[in-house]
């Protein structure tokens, strides 16, 4: 890796050992400092005039950019987090500031001003809650920045709940919104397939049961007249094949999940995730639903409320309708051991 590649990869901040490994000499580094091509940050670290201010700040404070901030710079889909800049201290400075990002186990030596994907994920496992961590892992897998085998090996000694989270990752997940919906629906006991292929239509993001086709729409990929038309044609073809298409947005998943899930549960309660076109008809006097028959002549639901038998079967082994909360809190960058 030459000088220009190093500067681009690490945000304009570079260490002495990297310069030497790239073929520079002590004399050439001194010349670069005298000419102003490089500017000193602290012992062993330099920056260019156009260096990334956040990277400079992290290194100036005896750290390196890590966790979500590093992963974002590697092009991964990162969930929101209250911490603006994620950085970690080097091995020798870690005890002086326990509030930075930390990982489970021994700290990783810093090879550059921005952690690589594998190292950044180690620190994200402790910064984020389980759902956020799975989102980050899915994005890394989907983008090819890490392999499933490497991911499992890297967290082989992690706490059991982190290993369980790794087991829930999926390399075909195309966005964090899709991952969040999948994780929440599976936690509710539903069978969810990822990137299911439908002949004549293509790949749908999530298939719940046999027929409920969930498409997770992002602003950047689902706006504009051309995209709008393609999405409607796609929905029409899904309906023609007996699927029940349902589009969800980022806001509906992350900001209004309770209401979103309530509608999904209602759809499942009516059996639309399992049946073909015949069950699309609204219930009437000639085709009373299970709910109608159960409540016929009785305005008062049974104790505990009416529960659709199919919904109870599909949602939970305990045969109760589960309503996941929309409050998915993010953990602090530094959790207790």
Q: Report the biggest beta sheet as strand number plus sense, adding barrel if it closes.
A: 4 strands, mixed
Give me the CATH fold name of the largest domain.
Endonuclease, Chain A
Class of the largest domain, according to the CATH hierarchy?
Alpha Beta
Q: Which stretches of 5+ consecutive residues score pLDDT under 50?
A: 277-332
The separation of the N and C termini measures 38 Å
Quickly give the CATH architecture of the largest domain.
Answer: 3-Layer(aba) Sandwich
The helix content is 40-55%
Rounded to the nearest angstrom, the radius of gyration is 25 Å
The best one-word shape is elongated
Total count of domains:
3
**Count of alpha and pi helical runs:** 15
In N-to-C order, the SSE pattern is: HEHHEEHEHEHHHHHEEEHEHHHH
**Oligomeric state of the chains?**
single chain
Tell me the fraction of residues in β-strands, as a range: 5-15%
| Strand line-up across the major sheet | 6-7-8-9
What would the average pLDDT be, to the nearest integer?
81
The name of the CATH superfamily of the largest domain reads VSR Endonuclease
The class by helix and strand makeup works out as: alpha+beta
Compute the number of strand runs: 9
Summarize the SSE layout with pairings.
Blueprint: H1 3-9, E1 13-15, H2 16-21, H3 26-35, E2 39-42, E3 45-47, H4 53-60, E4 63-65, H5 67-73, E5 87-89, H6 117-127, H7 130-142, H8 148-154, H9 160-167, H10 176-187, E6 192-198, E7 202-208, E8 212-217, H11 225-240, E9 244-249, H12 250-254, H13 257-269, H14 290-295, H15 309-315
Parallel strand pairs: 8-9
Antiparallel strand pairs: 1-3, 2-3, 4-5, 6-7, 7-8
